[in-house]
Amino acid sequence: MAKSPLLGNRLRRLRKERKLTQVELADRLGISASYLNLLEHNRRSITVPLLLHLSKILKVDPHVFSPQEEGHLIGEMTDALKDPLFSDHDFTDEEIAEMAADAPALSSAFKKTYDAFKTAQTDLQLLSERLSQDFLFAGSSFRLRTLVTSIMSSTEIVHDNEDLSSKDRKEFLQIALKDSEALNDTVNEMLGVVGDGSLTGKTWAPSPNEAVSDYIQAHNNYFDKIERAASEFRSSFNGLGLLSTHVMTDYLLEKHGIEVEFASRDSHNTEATLYDEKNHSLVLSKSLPQSSVKFHLALLLGQLTFADLFQELVEAPELPTEAAKQKGIAALANYFAGAFLFPYEMFFQSAEDLHYDIELLQQQFDASFEQICHRLTTLMRPGSSGVPFHLIRSDIAGNISKRFSTSGLRIPRYGNSCPRWVLHAAFLTPGTLCPQISEMPDGQRFFSIARTVTKPSLGYAQPKRQYAISIGCDIAEAHRLIYADGLNLTAPKTVMPVGITCRLCERSNCAQRAAPPPQQPRQTTSQKRNISPGIGDL
């Protein structure tokens, strides 16, 4: 087993929690205390037999030593600690990894604090832009300046003219009082539009989308209760055979009295699927392909049949608000639809037999490219797990709308990803599958593929929605994928040097850099200076 900066730290923490000395644990393992010390300080690899022996002695599941969860936490902490806010400190990767392993609760609290800071920073920027551009605020600002000028003029006249008659003095004071009241009303109006008074006293919580991403990552994108429920529910249809739309629409009508219809352009000129609970009808857009129709039907079946299960599962610390819980329920319903249409055992075996050929899996399961990629990331059942994948979906502007990683790839939480990722290159060749072997600054390599997908639309006049979807794994797992056939994975001819995001990447010679690299040690006078154009020049 390869060395990991996480395993030794976690071993030391588990030993201390059980109040065992190094000598005591070493005796029970049958190794020397000095060798155990090397293991705890990540200077020796923990072999599989030793890991299994440790799990029995410490009475923990072997998966406790999986680096995925802490790796995700380390990635987000590194992202935060490389912020210019902490430019006075140069935290090493080892220090960050040790903190995540030794104090996971403290690390999570720090991450939550930084999330709140970034949210406040974003809100302030948006508010600043609105104040400078919104016509309402522009008008209010003009009124503010006018009223302040009038008040100052009136009070100056009263102050500077001692021989002013009492009648005139009273008139100027009345003008100042009237303008002061108008000034107060204008300020209250502006504050009311900004936040309706709700900005004070608010407790911070992550956005619903971020909370759901954290929730899915914390569960490794595998929900055994939903898998079991989907399998049992599917057996009431036709076992492991492919489900047709007719079977599902008939079930909805017979069991729930819901009629399914395809909309006409005149009555339903939208790409959305609408469920009318009051009238017991489901209206599907006629632009949907067959794979999407089946998925929407399976989605509604899950929502109607397993609402209590979804509600039970979203009672989790990662989903602190009602909005996050509702987003979580929607995500679990989508997970159910995939588990229902693509049964775990059947899909896992097919993926292994076909060497994860997505196109062949599409044909076998009558599914879309994105549906197959999603299902591949959920194959994490202990004892029959698939390739640990990462999955990213981005729009053409670089906004990441879906992210998940069990491969070890760190996907940025704040800002855009590295422009050299194959995810972005896929937009240059729409519809064509693009492979890439990439190498991080620390030497870790990944194998990824990416392809664009176009969402259905109602015709030429409707704007098309295009996304790039990338799925990949650690280079050590790439031999299991058909896309790596014929490649020399140990010594590839072409490797793309990449980073996570420009702010965290130390590759100072990258021509696509869009932000300064992390703080570097100060150069001496004898070192050469880079006099190439700066960011944004030329």
Account of the 3D structure:
The protein is an alpha+beta fold. 48% of the residues lie in helices and 10% in strands. It has helices at residues 7-17, 22-29, 33-40, 48-58, 68-81, 93-102, 104-133, 135-160, 166-195, 208-218, 224-235, 245-256, 290-305, 307-313, 322-341, 344-353, 358-365, 369-376, 422-425, and strands spanning 259-262, 274-276, 281-284, 380-381, 384-385, 390-395, 400-405, 434-439, 445-455, 465-474, 496-497. The strands form three sheets. It has a six-stranded mixed β-sheet with strand order 7-6-10-9-8-11. A hairpin with a 2-residue loop joins β4 and β5. α1 (7-17) packs parallel to α6, α10 packs across α15 (322-341) and α14 (307-313) crosses α15. Mean pLDDT is 82; it is low at 196-201 and 521-538.
For the biggest sheet, the summary is: 6 strands, mixed
Low-confidence stretches: 196-201, 521-538
Main sheet strand line-up: 7-6-10-9-8-11
Structural shape:
globular
Order of helices and strands: HHHHHHHHHHHHEEEHHHHHHEEEEHEEEE
Distance between the termini: 48 Å
User: What radius of gyration results from the CA coordinates?
Assistant: 30 Å
What fraction, in percent, of the residue positions are helical? 40-55%
| Averaged pLDDT | 82
Strand content: 5-15%
The counted number of beta strands is 11
Count of discrete alpha- or pi-helical segments spanning 4 or more residues? 19
The helix/strand class is alpha+beta
